[in-house]
């Protein structure tokens, strides 16, 4: 172990969620279950979930970063939940790197088109590419 800290970051669960979503393979549900059980067993504290200072000793830190709830548990919820559990259609959104839902309609409904207009005094065709 070169770096024994585990701040409960979401990246592994993010990948697990996307792999399950893409393949439908039940294996990823089992992976998520193992992660959830480990979180409950090794990081659960009376006021939330504690980061782990060293995975070898399982010594906990007195902190829980905001991404634990905002991302880590969001991916667990989406992994185990069904599409009907969400108040919107996942196909209409893309998740940002911080697990925020960004509507795909932003790229197509013209609301952001004004930011992309440029007025050039010179040869406009030169800049279209």
Query: Strand percentage, roughly?
Result: 5-15%
Main β-sheet description = 2 strands, antiparallel
Helical stretch tally: 4
Through-space gap between termini: 49 Å
Contiguous uncertain segments of 5+ residues: none
Give helix % range. Answer: 25-40%
By secondary-structure content and strand pairing, the structural class works out as alpha+beta
Radius of gyration: 21 Å
Number of strands: 6
The overall pLDDT average reads: 88
What is the global morphology? Answer: extended
Order of helices and strands: HHEEEEHEEH
Q: What order do the strands of the largest sheet run in, or round the barrel if closed?
A: 1-2
GO molecular function, one term: calcium ion binding
Cofactor: Ca(2+)
Organism: Pararge aegeria aegeria
Subcellular location: Endoplasmic reticulum
Describe this structure as you would to a colleague.
The protein is an alpha+beta fold. It has helices spanning 11-23, 27-42, 66-80, 125-128, and strands at 44-45, 48-49, 52-54, 59-60, 93-95, 101-103. The chain has a two-stranded antiparallel ribbon with strand order 1-2.
Layout of secondary structure:
Blueprint: H1 11-23, H2 27-42, E1 44-45, E2 48-49, E3 52-54, E4 59-60, H3 66-80, E5 93-95, E6 101-103, H4 125-128
Antiparallel strand pairs: 1-2, 3-4, 5-6
What's the gist of this structure?
This is alpha-1,2-Mannosidase. With 129 residues, this protein is α+β, with helices and mostly antiparallel strands.
């Amino acid at each position: 172990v070169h770096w024994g800290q585990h701040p409960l970051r979401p990246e592994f669960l993010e990948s697990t969620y996307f792999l399950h979503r893409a393949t439908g393979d039940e294996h990823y549900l089992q992976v998520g279950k193992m992660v959830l059980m480990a979180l409950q067993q090794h990081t659960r504290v009376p006021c939330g979930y504690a980061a782990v200072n060293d995975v070898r000793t399982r010594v906990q830190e007195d902190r829980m970063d905001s991404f634990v709830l905002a991302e880590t548990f969001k991916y667990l919820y989406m992994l185990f939940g069904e599409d009907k559990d969400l108040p919107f259609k996942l196909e209409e959104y893309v998740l940002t790197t911080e697990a925020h839902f960004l509507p795909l309609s932003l790229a197509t409904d013209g609301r952001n088109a004004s930011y992309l207009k440029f007025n050039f005094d010179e040869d406009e065709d030169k800049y279209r590419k």
